[in-house]
Each structure stands twice: as C-alpha cells, then as structure tokens.
Amino acid sequence: MNTIATRMPRAALVRCYALESRNEFLRLLRTPSFAVPTLLFPPLFYTLFALLLGSRSGNFHAQIYLLATYGVFGVMGPGLFGFGVTVALDRERGLLTLKRAQPMPPGAYLAAKLVMAMLFATLIFTILALLASAFGGVRLPAGAWLQLLVVDVLGVLPFCAIGLFVGSLVGGQGAPALINLIYLPMAFLSGLWMPLAMLPGFIATIAPLWPAWHLGRLALGVVGEAPGEAVLPHVLVLAGCTLVFLALARRRLARG
Amino acid sequence: MPRQPQPAAAELRGVHKRYGTLAALDGLDLHVAPGELLAVLGPNGAGKSTAIATCLGLVEPDRGSARLFDESPLRLAVRRRVGVMLQSALLPDTLTVAELLAQTRSYYPQPLGTDECVRLAGLEDLRDRRYGRLSGGQQRRVQFALAVCGRPQLLFLDEPTVGLDLDARTALWATIRTLVADGCAVVLTTHYLEEAEALADRVAVLAHGRVVAAGSVAQIRARVAQRRIRCLSTLDVATVAAWPEVRSACRDGERLEIVTDTAEIVVRQLLFEDSALSELEVQRAGLAEAFTEITREAA
What we know:
The structure holds 2 protein chains of 2 kinds. Chain A contains 13 helices and no strands.
C-alpha cells in the first residue's frame, strides 16, 4: 500500500521541477534589489557607451562589440547574484534545511536556480538585441543571433558555480558585497566595458585568468569581432571552471 | 502466526551526537507509534531540535540509528509520508501563500487540494498575499499548511504555536486533534505545557540529550507528589510554614497558599487551628510543576 502511495509518476516530477523554477524566477523578479540592476544596468550601459557615446569614437564597432560584451556582463549577474545571494540567504534563514527535510526531489533546488538564471540571461539578451538592432543599426545573420543567445544562456553556468560557492561560504549580509568585489573588477579586467586594447598592457596579459574574458571572446567571435579565435580552448576553460567551483561548493554544502 | 507488529512511525535508538565538546544527544531513545501524538518537552538546549533533525535525516548521528517507518530518513519515498514544520524556517518573502503551497504540494504524490490546505490552516483570505507581508502568526500558519499539505502519516511540529494568538492556537489544536484522529502520528515540541496537556497521548521530557521521563501526561504529573492548598485564613504564614509537612507557605492577599506532599494531614491541621477558614481548595501539581521538578532532578 505504501509503496504505491509514495511513488511519483514522471509527469508529477516534471511539474515539481517546473513549479520550483517558476517560484525561484518570480521570487527574484519581485526582488527589486536584484531585478533592477540585473535587467537595467546592461541596457543602460549599452545605451550610454554604445549608442550615445560610441557613435562618436569611430575606431571600433562599438555597437557590435559592446552588444557582445555587455551581453556577457549582463548574464554574469543572474549567475553570481542569483546563486550567491539566494543560496547564502537560504542557508542562513533555514530554508535549505526545510527543503532537505521535505521530500523535494534532489537536484530540484539547483535546477530551479539554473533555470531562473537562464531565463534572466534570455531576457537580458533580448533587451540588448532589440536595442542594438533598433537603435544601433546592428545587422547580424539569424545564425549569429542564435549563437549569441546560446553563448549568453549557457554562459551563466560558470558564474552560477562561482555564485554557488560564494553562497556556501558567506552569510546573506556578506554575499552581495563579496559578489560585487568579484563581479565588477572581473568585468572590467576582462574587457567587457571597453576593449582591452584601450587599457594598459598587463591587464590584457592577465585577462586569460578570468572566466568572463573567455566567455567574452566566444561572444565576440560570434559577432565577428574576434576573427580567427579558436572556440575550443575557451569552452574547455569555462567548463573546467564550472566543475571546479561546483565541486568546491558541494564540499562546503555537504558539511553543513 | 503472531501478527507482525507495525513499525514505529519514528524511532531513535541510542543516538549520540556531539558538537565539539558538547554532547547534544547522549544516548537518546525515542519511539513514536503510528497515530500517536508524542510531546517532546525540555528546557532550551535539552536536544529537542537536534532530536527532530536526527529523525528527519538532517543530522547524522555519531552513534545509534534513526528510522522513519523502519526506513532510513534519507530515502525520499519515506519522507513523502512525512510533513515538517521547523522552528526557524523563513520562506521567501516575495512569494504568495498560493505559490508556496503549490510548490510544496508538488513534492507529494497525493496532496490535499489547495482549498483544503488553506482551510485547515485558516488562511482563506490570505491566499494571494505575499509571505513577507504576513504577520508572524500568519506566517506560522502558512508553515503549518505546508507541513500538512501532503497528507502525512507522520508530522513533525517544532514549536508550532509560537506567535499565535489564543484563537489561532485553539484552532490549530483542533486541526491537530483531527489529524491524529485520522491516524496521523505527530511529534510535537513545545514550550507551552498546556499545549502538551491538551494534545499529547504521551510526553517525553528531555534534559542533556536524554529522556529523563516518559509516559502519559497523568503519569508524568504523578511523578510529582506535591499538592497546592489554597484557603482564606487568618493563620500566621510563618507558623504554618514551620509545620513539618509543609514545604512552603505564602500569603497572596487574603489567601494563604501552601505547598505540601501530604495534603490530608495539613488540611486536618488547618481546620483544627482556624475554625473560620473558608474557600478551601486542593490542587494536584500540573505538568508545569512536574516538568520543573523532573528537569531539576536531572540537572
């Protein structure tokens, strides 16, 4: 009798993952301190530096270049903050403990956050793409738009892993500060705000240390701003970074 | 062939758990039969929450074992028969009651309908309210709704009525009684002794990570022989307090209040000394006195 009562059909499990993801997305969409900077800053910066100021400089295709790099800058946010801050809060406020006591399918917790980050990445990509094509005169083949979307959406993975690790280390109060210390300098040092060629040489030399730089190179390759760039090394670095931080976070969370 | 005994709904056997030098659980045994309400009492730091966490598989015991329906609490299938209300779980502020319920209901194979959950917890008017905009008592009721939404056969309630007003508490007690009458076993920790007195089939008193007393409410109460005598009398308090059978005596306005183990002898003496004595009352100690006594002995 009990074995029947406790078995879940596949459709019910899918529903469970879907509801978990929906709630995680709504939870953050309704949190202004997360949703406003995440959804507003990339298009705001793009409008300012690519559309208003970029047209005057003329030495590089600001509208195309910054479409790629602000896309990367944009999708780092939901990964780093969406995982880092919520995991830290959930740990601190006992929600993670409750979820572990409830019969939530293992994996639903992280899967829901991943879906949330990818939805935000899709939104950010869409807003930037509309701005770039409507006001920046950016014309790309359909295949390139699609590839850029894939780079942005899958590009959240390493930042989700880093965010998860940060969330497993610090509390809900400390997490936003620590993540900003990672987020903003890394974006700058990876050439996401302005091309590395405009910055001192040593910044370009150390750039391969940052996962954001590798993701940026992939995005620039798609829009034709990094001709002859080999894709595989960047993909491998990003995948490796994801796995390393995931493993570190697992160890931390298992302890506690 | 003898009938197979039903497995315990929850069972801890000889559980030891240390945090550094502190022994949180020190050989704890706990047994909850199906359909039974066990109240776990004890002062702060007695190990109540650690005991519940161990039952649920949240804490791994250093020694001993935890079982739910004779299975490991780590198994998802067995936790689908269990509902949980923890003491300090803050749910996301920006989600509505209905959204939170939908999510938790989806964890269970045959959940109650949303209307039913909302009614059981008295949340009819609050379905679309965000969790962060609810009062403390309302939030507690949402947590209760999440605990019962999966039609559990075993329910863990860690301090369920903290922050509830009297009406809400009485309503929650009635719901808990209905659940128990329908065969749900309940493990309840509480600071409110009247809650244990009102609900519990059995009481286990914890101190220093061990059970120091267990039994029915009446049995626990009987462990304390003390009775309280109250009456209107002009007798001098100091004189009465000096009688050998009297443990303590004090005056509360007109009223004399005496605590003793042998009420019959003291009453006879009182009536002998003061023929004008009136409004005589003799009360057996409540669970509160028993509890204080037992945990003091264990200290």
